[in-house]
DNA sequence: CTTACCATGTAAGGCGTTACATGATTCA
DNA sequence: TGAATCATGTAACGCCTTACATGGTAAG
């Protein structure tokens, strides 16, 4: 079992780029990490408190007007912790594709239902792909400026490649099911 | 929130193909569903008891010699339950790619470490791909015989397509990181 | 004026893994 | 005879999501 909790590492990773509020951390996850990682407020805020308690992050008040705001930053200890986690090999990559599960048992439900699941999957991928392509284009235009962008681009391109493979598969899978 | 627990659906799905023991269910998951779903004994056995309690599965003794063995089968109620789950749209497909996470924060650790994570990922994919290709070939040779095979083939081809996309990405990602 | 967004947090409960516990059989 | 595989199960615990609770601000 891992000593490092993933949520801590993600937060620390984001804080290694810039100081952020809990709300902003969630935002970053929902945009940059969306297609390969996710977390809810219910895990982010407690993790943030815990990180501060352990000295891996610091907090400061950043309130403007009447709006409360707590800005978190990474400490030196936090940076070491992150580096150590980055150094050790990946434990496991996990996927839980409900779409494939429903497809695997498709004979119970029939061809039409299988196709409708593939259609829904295809729609979702098609709607997300332009965003990824847009992000890649933007990143390519100022790759020299910031090193973090280079790594971000890497993950975006992973997304683009796999999404395109998904779309190809959707087409072929439907063709196979329809020729009957 | 879903009323249906995924573990119940997976088990019921496997039982819709054939009668199985808990041990065999785990085996099926570790082979057929491996690259898009997983579960441990700690979730399978309790789920099985629960399924019987709710009348969705039946159990019978299948002991041979001195070896105890409990064979589970799907009931009519179980089949309806499965069909209903199969009918409703997919809730969500989830992935948690630790590899991409470590890569996203790669600037903290440097190019060499990023490459070593990609290498490890590539190795894993390369070692699993032949198994998928072998499965696809076998399935293609008796696709007419059994309808369940057709759907199994669909998921295997999903695996092959995405794995190939992964490998392409690995190559390009490393090339990008190395040109420096 | 109301909807969407900014912003933080807690409590309950679900889900599932890991580790443990036990014991038979098969094969080298 | 020891390792691998067959076979079933429980207990502790961790992690996370959902739902709830609260309140300010910006924009239409």
Q: What's the CATH H-level homologous superfamily of the largest domain in chain A? A: Winged helix-like DNA-binding domain superfamily/Winged helix DNA-binding domain
Number of helices of chain A: 7
Could you name the CATH class of the largest domain in chain A? Mainly Alpha
The CATH architecture name of the largest domain in chain A reads Orthogonal Bundle
Gross morphology of chain A is elongated
What count of domains describes the coordinates of chain A?
A: 2
Proportion in β-strands of chain A:
5-15%
Q: Which stretches of chain A are poorly predicted, pLDDT < 50 over at least 5 residues?
A: none
Which strand order do you get reading across the main beta sheet of chain A? Answer: 1-2
Biggest sheet descriptor of chain A: 2 strands, antiparallel
Give the termini separation of chain A: 48 Å
Structural class of chain A: mainly alpha
Instruction: Tell me the number of strands of chain A.
Output: 3
Q: In which range does the helix fraction of chain A lie?
A: 55-70%
What name does the CATH topology of the largest domain in chain A carry? Arc Repressor Mutant, subunit A
Instruction: Output the radius of gyration of chain A.
Output: 20 Å
Give an overview of the whole structure.
Two copies of one chain form a homodimer. The first copy, chain A, is 64% helix and 8% strand. Chain A has 180 residues and is mostly helical. Chain A folds into two domains: 6-87, Arc Repressor Mutant, subunit A (Orthogonal Bundle), CATH 1.10.10; 98-178. Chain A has a two-stranded antiparallel ribbon. In chain A, a hairpin with an 8-residue loop joins β1 (57-61) and β2 (70-74). The first copy, chain A, is elongated, with a radius of gyration of 20 Å. The model of chain A has no long low-confidence stretch (mean pLDDT 94). Chains A and B meet through α1, α4, β3, α5 and α6 of A and α1, α4, β3, α5 and α6 of B. β3 of chain A pairs antiparallel with β3 (93-97) of chain B, so a sheet runs across the interface.
């Amino acid at each position: 079992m891992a000593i490092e909790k993933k949520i801590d590492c993600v937060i620390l990773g984001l804080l290694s780029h810039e100081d952020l509020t809990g709300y902003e951390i969630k935002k970053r996850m929902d945009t940059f990490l969306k297609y390969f990682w996710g977390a809810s407020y219910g895990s982010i805020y407690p993790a943030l408190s815990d990180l501060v308690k352990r000295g891996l992050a610091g907090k400061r008040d950043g309130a403007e007007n009447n709006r409360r705001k707590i800005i978190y930053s990474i400490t030196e200890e936090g940076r070491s912790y992150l580096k150590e986690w980055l150094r050790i090999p990946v434990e496991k990559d996990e996927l839980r594709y409900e779409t494939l599960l429903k497809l695997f048992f498709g004979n119970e439900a029939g061809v039409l239902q299988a196709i409708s699941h593939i259609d829904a999957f295809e729609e979702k991928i098609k709607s997300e792909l332009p965003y990824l392509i847009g992000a890649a284009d933007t990143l390519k235009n100022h790759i020299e400026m910031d090193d973090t962008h280079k790594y971000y681009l890497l993950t975006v391109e992973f997304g683009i490649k796999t999404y395109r493979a998904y779309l190809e598969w959707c087409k072929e899978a439907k063709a196979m099911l329809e020729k009957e």
